[in-house]
Amino acid sequence: MVDIRQIYETGRLFDGHYRLLKPLSTAGGSADVWLAADVNTVDGDLDVDKATKVAIKIYRPRNIIDMEGEFQFRNEFRKVFSCHHENIIQPTYFSIFQETPYLVMPYCPAGSSENLIGRIKDSEGLWKYICQVASGLAYLHEHVPQIIHQDIKPANVLIDDNGNYAITDFGISAEMGGMDAGSEDESGGTFAYMAPERFVEGTPPMPESDIWAFGATIYEMISGDVPFGNEGGRVQDRDTAVPPLGQDVPESIRQLVCSCLSYDPASRPTARGIVDMVMKRRYSKNRKLAAIISAVAVCVSVILVVIFASGHASDVEENFSSMCGRGDALVAAEADAIARNGGVPDLSCITGLEQAVVLYHNACNDVPKNFKGREAVLHKVE
């Protein structure tokens, strides 16, 4: 029988080639997650700093498995291993060491979205989170065979190196939890994010329950609190209203959260439906943006044509210089704004860069090709 003290020890070499560096998560009911260095990726074990860093999920002693359990574990891993999507974190390896199963996953230094609870203040940031998490869920729900996550929550949404969101801890966690369903995590979920039907004995896993958990996750990301406290859907009934979100939250997001948290599973949207809704919203917004840019371009072109047709070359030169100067100012202001915003442009309106491109482009189109300074401005546009 395995001695747990021999496994959970910082600095220990686990299963021959994973040097345990520090625990990343020890709060789960069925497993602990460690940051480890894969010493097989460097020439010598002593050069740990240069070794590839991974996250290892080691299941706890009560999940020590027999031959039948090992067969189930390997089958579940093969199902998960077939998943490939930008918004899920796919395990890269699995094995069983001293009767204890474990998974190896990519390490995300930025951590989980739990660190961002209550901190995503702009609507575009919320829509990004909603779309990417829903996209990962839609992939799992549409996978053949279907995968129900059963434990969607901020801690199970990781942030990758590009600042995008990806779901982790899917598939195998619920199966392992089901081997000893004595507490909330061990039942394949966390009470605060569990839908009402999950507290009814005999209810099979279903995508609609993941959507309820998704709604509770979005609610918490916005407000800082879960909608129904630590008991989750256990205390919700048909007449229980979803606690209101702040008035500064866009109505479309509030409606989405409420629909996800519907008591009746049939009233909740699908993950694919959520993604489609977000994409339609983005398409509509982009069309409005394009229309505004087009209108600005037409107006600028008309003004330049009128000025040029008047025969006042000095006026043309003056307006060309003025327009390019305004473009330069917009570029400088936008660069400063992006820097203040952490390197992210503000998508809620036409950016200064887009206005500058319009000004540069039309200024060059409406003067002769040999006009002084025209070539330099074209290089700016490129």
Automatic annotation (TrEMBL):
Gene Ontology molecular function: any one: protein serine/threonine kinase activity
Coiled coil (residue ranges): none
Membrane-traversing stretches: 289-309
UniProt entry keywords in alphabetical sequence: ATP-binding, Kinase, Membrane, Nucleotide-binding, Serine/threonine-protein kinase, Transferase, Transmembrane, Transmembrane helix
Any one Pfam family match given in the protein's UniProt record, by short name: Pkinase
UniProt key word Hydrolase: no
Domain annotation Protein kinase: ranges: 19-284
Name listed for the protein in its UniProt record: Serine/threonine protein kinase
Organism: Candidatus Cryptobacteroides merdavium
